[in-house]
Amino acid sequence: MSVALVTGAARQRGIGRATALRLARDGHDVACLDIARPYEEAPAHGVASGGDLDSVVAEIEALGRRAIAVRADVSDEDEVTAAVAAGSEALGTITLVANVAGGSGPGFGFGPLIAVPAAEFRRVLDVNVTGTWLVSKACAARMVAAGVGGRICNVSSQAGKRGFPLLGAYCAAKAAVILLTQTMAMELGPSGIAVNAVCPGTVDTELTNAGGILQQTFGESILREIPLGRFQTAEEIAATIGWLLSDDARAITGEAVNASAGQTMV
Ligand SMILES: NC(=O)c1ccc[n+]([C@@H]2O[C@H](COP(=O)([O-])OP(=O)(O)OC[C@H]3O[C@@H](n4cnc5c(N)ncnc54)[C@H](O)[C@@H]3O)[C@@H](O)[C@H]2O)c1
Fold first, then answer.
1. What is the pLDDT of residues 86-117, one digit of tens each?
2. Fewer C-beta within 10 Å: the chain N or C terminus?
3. Whose CA is nearest to atom 1 of ligand 1?
4. Does pTM top 0.90 for this prediction?
């Protein structure tokens, strides 16, 4: 049993929430971090959240594990530092980290690169890349200081491995997450900390499939380019993250593992 921290854990049907529940089922206590701002405030934060951290905490506690809700914007170093400190004080040293918070969408870097406003482009990089780094930095520094190893799993995307029209900011950000992952794996390996990334394909979450990017851009035509012929579920991605954070994956670090139903190779 270990203590885990999962970012982006609030949103219903989201990968973060599914990951937090998966790790709890695997026997871990979980600090659940999210910006968790209401939908009305979305433009100011470049994110549509509307999630509810308290209900995921209640679900984890019902599974017999300990959990705490920590609210932070992953791109804000002070908020991240305070959130990681609160999680550690409540549950103990965090040795498993899932960096799931991220995304893109209308008003948040989505559109042709000749038209996307610079502020939105920067915000996508800030949340997806800087946020992943800040949370890893805060947690890994504590692991190193405590002399314990650990595991980090960052969520990149198939969009970090190939271009997608209208998703230029997002592709740039998710590609950066892959090399951030490799570099952290090199720097933290000697301290016994493994760092990997998972690259989902198209997952049926509110981000993509509730009138979001997926439907606006591709509609159902995207199904034709997925060898397994269906979108993935948040639980399937959570299972891959859970595996990368488990002892079964102890030989693996610095990898960007596709979990895309074959879509990444097409
Ligand atoms: N859904 C897909 O098809 C897909 C595919 C590949 C990669 N991904 C990636 O998986 C991750 C989760 O995606 P999802 O579909 O579950 O999205 P989602 O929108 O359902 O969940 C994202 C969560 O992150 C939180 N969040 C956003 N910005 C934040 C910030 N600045 N600080 C703290 N929390 C913040 C949101 O509140 C939300 O709870 C994202 O990184 C996304 O880019 C998703």
1. 999 999 999 999 999 999 988 889 999 999 99
2. N
3. 203
4. yes
The token pair at 251 is 């030989």
Name 32's bridge partners: 6, 69
User: What amino acid occupies position 106?
Assistant: P
**What separation in Å is there between the alpha carbon of 9 and the centre of ligand 1?**
9
Widest Cα–Cα separation across the chain: 51
DSSP-derived letter for residue 116 is S
* Angstrom distance (rounded) from CA 224 to CA 61: 40
Q: Which atom of ligand 1 is nearest to the CA of 11?
A: 39
- Find out whether the beta carbon of 264 lies less than 6 Å from any atom of ligand 1: no
Q: Are 257 and 38 in contact (CB under 8 A)?
A: no
- Alpha-carbon distance 47 to 38, whole Å? 10
Ligand 1 touching residue 32 (CB < 6 A): no
Q: Is the CB of 49 under 6 A from ligand 1?
A: yes
Cβ neighbors of 78 (< 8 A, separation 6 or more) are: none
Pairing of strands 29-34, 67-71: parallel
- Respond yes or no: is residue 39 known to be catalytic: no
Residue ranges and CATH numbers for the domains of the chain are 3-259 (3.40.50.720)
For the CA atoms of 7, 59, 199, 100, what is the dihedral angle to 10 degrees? -10
Residues 230 and 155 sit within 8 Å (Cβ to Cβ): no
Strand partners, 259: 200
Cα distances from 170 to residues 10, 33, 64, in angstroms, run: 21, 21, 37
Residue 150: strand, helix, or coil? strand
Tens of pLDDT, residues 129-154: 999 999 999 999 999 999 999 999 99
Instruction: Give percent of the chain above pLDDT 90.
Output: 80
Task: Establish whether residue 47 lines the binding site of ligand 1, counting it when its CB lies within 6 angstroms of any ligand atom.
Answer: yes
